[in-house]
Amino acid sequence: GSPSPGCASCGLPSMERDAEERLMTEIAKQQILEKLHLKERPNITHTVPRAALLTALRKLHSGRVRQDGTLELQNEIPTRDPGYEIVSFADISKMDSGEGASLNFQFQQERGQSIQVLESSLWIYARSSEDPRRDSRLFARVFLSAVGEVSGSNRTLVIEKMLEVQDSNWHTFPITRTLQSFLDGGQRRLQLEVSCDEDGKNLCSFDDTANSAHQPFLVAKVRLRDDRSKHVLRKR
Amino acid sequence: SLRCGNVVSVCCKREFYIKFKDIQWDEWIIAPEGYHMNYCIGQCPQHLAGSPGIASSFHATVFSQLKINGINTATTSCCVPTERRPLSMVFFDSQHSIVKMDVPDMIVESCGCT
Asked: Pseudo-torsion of CA A132, A137, A142, A148, nearest 10°?
């Protein structure tokens, strides 16, 4: 019934176009944070090397990386599945023995939030063997180690795999169950140790230097468990 | 759904693009560069609120008929989104992990009167 163009029943008063768009922008910001399950905009204190970021995005097939380095998402219809994908880059600390490296991943779960891991894998870049006479295959092992422990001690073998290292390439290690147990335990820091050495020489690339395109990363497809539906079922 | 012109009177969809660079959010949102949020604005006068294409639902048309006939006149009709579309987003979270998420109901496709 209001003579103004705004819809009175929505509580949106009539206002100048600029003011209206400023208000809409603020509402959009709140809406985006809420939908992305964030309390506030993330404070980016250190950036992931651009090369590593582009590599991970290419591996995810999330979209096409344009020549200028920006990402164009595939023109597909997004699903209404509440699941999402996470790519976490490792903080690397070299082991004293020089055989491998300790990879640290940080995860933060909201209290009361339960995450189901649908699929997860660790991506490692292995260089080709320098000696062409050597066997082109190499054994790689991934261990779960206790946080705060000295590298090489108190660790559990998660997976071992034969890698073909005739050419330098990326290799994946499925770690779905390991990640699920880690998240169910309410921990924050996942520490993995990777050993892929040949005659004491580590063929896996663990360069923690800036602009490294070969920084190891972890990919996980997860979704939030809907505990409310469980509660309703239990009640029924 | 009607698209709003410069002067808004009847319920319509106003095109509104948010560019993340303009709000300094481009450092944590990797893709897309922005999105068409759009929103609904305008009045839903009694003679239009139940019209095909403007009414948000069959239920809205029925209620509009009740109002026109002087029954249940206390209800008011409002211009709201009737169709929305999800948006794929890739962003850094607070742990500096990259997250790809399909966010539902982000883009308003059309508007109508309740």
From this structure: -20
- Rounded to whole angstroms, the Cα distance separating B30 from B37 reads 17
pLDDT digits (tens, 9 = 90+) for A180-220: 998 888 878 888 988 887 666 677 767 655 557 788 889 99
- CA torsion A203→A209→A215→A220, rounded to 10°? 140
Q: Specify the DSSP element, H or E, that contains A227.
A: helix A227-235
Q: Which long-range contacts (CB under 8 A, 24 or more apart) does B49-56 make?
A: B49/B77, B49/B113, B50/B113, B53/B1, B53/B112, B54/B2, B54/B10, B54/B11, B54/B112, B54/B113, B55/B112, B55/B113, B56/B80, B56/B82, B56/B112, B56/B113, B56/B114
**Complex ipTM above 0.85?**
no
CB atoms within 10 A of CB B99: 22
CB–CB of A85 and B101 under 8 A?
yes
pLDDT one-digit tens code per residue, A147-178: 666 555 678 899 998 888 788 888 999 999 99
Q: How far apart are the CA of A59 and the nearest CA of chain B, in angstroms?
A: 13
Of A71, A89, A107, the CB nearest to B90: A71
* Residue in A153, A120, A157, A123 with CA at minimum distance from that of residue A141: A157
Distance separating alpha carbons of residues B21 and A42, to the nearest angstrom? 15
Report the distance separating Cα A109 and Cα A185, nearest Å: 11
Residues of chain B contacting residue A216, judged by C-beta atoms under 8 Å apart: none
> A48: Cβ–Cβ under 8 A, 6 or more apart, which residues?
A89, A215, B92, B96, B98
Alpha carbons within 13 angstroms on the beta-carbon side of residue A140 total 29
Q: What number of CA atoms fall less than 13 Å from residue A141's CA on the CB side?
A: 12
Q: Kindly identify which residue of chain A lies nearest to residue B41, measuring between CA atoms.
A: A6
Spatial distance between the Cα atoms of B33 and B27, rounded to a whole number of angstroms? 11
Could you identify the residue written with the tokens 């106003």?
B14
Cβ of B18 and A25 within 8 Å?
A: yes
